[in-house]
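Supplementary Note 3. Input sequence used for the single-chain structure prediction.
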Amino acid sequence: MLSAMGTPVEPTHGIGTRKRRDLRLILTLAVGLVSGGAIGACANTDQNLEKQRLLDELENAGSGKPAQCKPGAAEPCYSGPPGTSGRGVCNQGSHTCGDSARWGSCEAEIVPHDELCNRLDDDCDGIVDNDFERDGAICFIGTGSCKTQGVWHCSKDGAKTECSAPPPPSKPEVCDGIDNNCNGEIDEGTFPGIGQACSTGKTGVCSPGVMSCTGGKIQCLQNIKETPEVCNGLDDDCNNKVDDNCLSAEAAAKVKAGQPLDVGNNK
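The predicted structure, written as discrete structure tokens, is reproduced below.
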């Protein structure tokens, strides 16, 4: 077809086809620019100027934002800390280049999260179930005769470890120096004969006593401890002698308090 001036005119029905072809060419070239490193160090060379022009056209044809990729392309992606991908549960995902020549969101990636007790390395630090007792390790509950054995295992929600040891056996408490009922106390409670008056077998004020559970057995404990002999008609020092070398009440109080006595004055 000729114009009025005799110049050949390209048919109008081919314009849209040519633009689409040019755009595909631009996209193809842009992929080479992005994957191979965009504009090199020699930024003013003819080749790089042409690359920049093609990128600009691609950006103008898309969203107006800098081009990143060829629409429809897919690549691996990972947004977690460096060195964690492929460790523990962490793994790469993939993202797809959209029509705007920009990468979409990273799908199906797994990044580090708080560690749980589940035999997995959730925080991707190379250690499984760190900060938890090792699943399957031996554990104990109680002490002494109240000790039972089990193993550690993860709770259902993975928030903690629990010991599978059965509850300690419980028996009626007796006066034997043992925690029979496994409540953490020894020889607590009331036993037959406790509280009854008794004689210790000692002399003087040390003779009267009361039955008590002491030292793992029921025995008679004296009510009064021996003290310095006082002139009071009693055997205060429990030596089977009354008022021998006795002191006045005031002097005895000083002796008991650790104070010195006046020489020659013990009355």
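Helices lie at 15-35, 46-61, 249-256. Residues 89 and 122 are 6 Å apart (CA to CA).
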